[in-house]
Design goal:
Length: 105
Amino acid sequence: MFGAYRTARKFDQAAAHWTSVTRIDLRDGGRITRQAEDFMSSLRVSPEDAWVIATTNWMTGMSRPESRKLVAEGMLAFLAARCAKFEISGEIARIARVTAEDILH
């Protein structure tokens, strides 16, 4: 019970940090949280890593190129500002960064 609360809190903190850094409201209808929960189980990653993986996955699946680019710019800003507030593994951060850069170029 407390584990689920702690995980939900970490997802909320990630989303709040995202919004404070990027000023982008993801408006994903809870999809990122649901995918992050699935990634935690299937990939055995931390809540922070799972949230970044799910957000990256959501970003790449966007149908409008201008929206995808906006979120990619946000992802780069989020990753640059994450170090003091949000622990993401180096490999997950690298994958998210490369994916965002590919969208922008």
